[in-house]
Design a protein that fits this description.
Number of helices: 8
Number of strands: 9
Structural class: alpha/beta
Mean pLDDT: 90
Distance between the termini: 29 Å
Radius of gyration: 17 Å
Shape: globular
């Protein structure tokens, strides 16, 4: 049987360290990589369920850390995007899904011509990082209000800076979550899957997210910030209302 080419792709970038020039350990010993496996599985199941032909692939790092101006994971992400373009062609839409340091790398690599959008989970967003590469991209950052390793306030600030630079942005707050995405894990998995497939046009994007992405460049950061439970109803438990949706993005 001839395998059809993918219609879209997700590149998954796990977290890491501020510094570390050694390679990540193999297999399950690479805890940041292991942390993203449930997201890969959830995306794979959802993509198969809708018959969308979405390729889900994890980016391999040569080094554990960001390493200052070297920005090693950024270069790994660009190399993975270049390889994907060689494999599937210039027209393949890609969403980058990153956690923590991986989200920083995804945001930095978003200027690649294949990239349609970025979903950043508990992202590391230093205030001096560039945002001009995010112009004409969809950027959704998901952050716990109890994160003690990366700053939800910095994520909110980045959404405003990126919107002024021409991006379409939104932030979703997960109340009671944590940086490792262990607390309320099913909610993290569900909202991430909905966001990624919605941005790719292979699923329905929650309507409040679509409204936030449509805000003007002058909108305040708080206008584009949503509460997972109050605004989306995702992962709110039996009492939570199901999220409404907008048509798939094209």
């Amino acid at each position: 049987m001839v395998q059809r080419p993918p219609s879209a792709a997700v590149l998954v970038l796990h977290g890491g360290r501020e510094t570390g020039t050694e390679p990540p350990p193999p297999g399950l010993l690479n805890l940041p990589g292991t942390r993203m496996r449930p997201f890969v599985r959830a995306l794979g199941r959802a993509a198969t369920g809708v018959g969308s032909g979405v390729l889900v692939r994890q980016v391999r790092y040569g080094h554990r850390g960001w390493n200052g101006d070297r920005a090693d994971p950024f270069h790994d992400a660009v190399a993975a995007l270049d390889a994907l373009r060689d494999e599937a062609g210039d027209g393949l839409p890609v969403v980058l899904l990153g956690h923590s340091m991986g989200a920083r790398a995804a945001l930095r690599a978003a200027g690649h011509p294949l990239v349609r959008g970025v979903v950043g989970l508990a992202p590391w967003c230093p205030p001096g990082d560039p945002v001009t590469q995010l112009a004409d991209r969809d950027v959704v950052l998901v952050h716990s209000n109890r994160d003690r390793l990366t700053s939800p306030q910095a994520s909110q600030s980045l959404t405003a800076r990126a919107r002024r630079a021409g991006a379409r942005t939104c932030m979703i707050t997960v109340r009671g979550g944590d940086h490792a995405m262990i607390r309320r894990a099913p909610a993290w998995h569900r909202v991430t899957t909905a966001l990624v497939l919605g941005l790719l046009g292979s699923g329905s994007l929650p309507a409040p997210v679509g409204a936030a992405l449509a805000l003007p460049a002058t909108a305040e950061a708080t206008e584009g910030t949503l509460d997972l439970d109050l605004d989306l109803g995702a992962g709110a438990g039996p009492a939570g209302r199901p999220p409404t949706a907008v048509p798939p993005r094209r």
